[in-house]
Structures are given as C-alpha cells and as structure tokens.
Amino acid sequence: xxxxxxxxxxxxxxxxxxxxxxxxxxxxxxxxxxxxxxxxxxxxxxxxxxxxxxxxxxxxxxxxxxxxxxxxxxxxxxxxxxxxxxxxxxxxxxxxxxxxxxxxxxxxxxxxxxxxxxxxxxxxxxxxxxxxxxxxxxxxxxxxxxxxxxxxxxxxxxxxxxxxxxxxxxxxxxxxxxxx
Length: 180
Description:
With 180 residues, the protein is mostly beta strands. It has one helix and 17 strands. Strands 9, 10, 11, 12 and 13 form a five-stranded antiparallel beta sheet that branches.
C-alpha cells in the first residue's frame, strides 16, 4: 500500500513524502517512510528511507524548505538533506530540550530561524545558519486546551472547540496573549 503524504516544489525538483507498507501476505511488515526527489523529467534524483512514525503523521508537522535543504522532522532529530544530491548536511537532536514536536510548518521558518512547538507547549527557536543551535525556549503558558492553527517565530494562533480563539505573541522572553 502506498500513502502519499505531501508533495513539495523545490524549483527544478519535486520532493515527495510517502509511506509504503506490504499487507498482501499474512506477515505484517513495518511501514517505511520514503522521501524522494524527482526532477521535472520524472527521473529520481535520490531517495531517503526512514522508519515510519505514525505519531508524527497525526500532527501538523511538515518538511521545511531552507536554503537548498529539506529539513525532515523525525522522532528525535531534525535532519537536513541537500536538495540536489540527497546528502545529509546536519542533524539536530532536540531531545535534550523537548520530548516531541507538536507543530512545525513552513510558516515557522523566517530567514535562518526555525520555530517549533513541543507536545508540552514549549516554544523553541533554533538558529539554522551554521550548525543548528537552540537560541530560545519557553513554556507558552496557555491556560486553555486547544489546537494551533498558525505559528511563526513571533506568534501562535490558538483555538479550541469551545469557541476560544487567541493570539499569543512573543514579548521579549515570554508569550503574552494579545487578544482572545
């Protein structure tokens, strides 16, 4: 079985994020995640293979396009892949700071700074310019259960099914609610 998760346009290449599993026989095989680069002529440039992580797939966590790299959020690391040749440029292990990622989309990248939100509502900023390094981490202090609708390096739009909508903005070294 094939599951197409997303397709990304990277100039002269298309990046495809898929899951594969074999359910034709009585032995259930583990699902495999493949990220492939395909040129405009339909030829495969490279393929990366990972163990599928269903927990990450259930959350708004995307591949991030950054400076001819694709940043792949994995179970314990962020892995940067060169778009042209598929080589691994760097890895960043985030498990010293957080347990798991809750939210990470392209809107979370501004210039060389990447924001992500942990499952425990910890907001992280990572400088990607040379070797990735943590530059900020803080608990956003949300006092209502909810879902992130949008996030960037300065703000988080948070809502829940009870009618709450709030904009939280980074003010110096902490998050404050701007409106709700």
